[in-house]
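FIELD: query
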Amino acid sequence: MSAKKPGKSASQRSMSTMGYAYAILLILQTMFIGVSAANRLQQGDSTIEVLIWMINQCIPVLKQASSLQEKQKKSLLPKHRCSEDK
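FIELD: result
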């Protein structure tokens, strides 16, 4: 006889699936930046120009990843917590 483990709620599974989807899209976006950088190098742009361009392209990706992480943290917090400023 095996004891059943408590499963995730539907909203947690949905958030988990959404998290994986966002992660895949962010990875694809980062890979696209790398491919575009390689193309720019082949077209003759200087290494420094391409590096600066890549950094500027990656900042929004990092912001999106951070925002997703914050949303996931907030969704896992209990809803009945008292405010901490009391």
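FIELD: remark
The mean pLDDT is 80.
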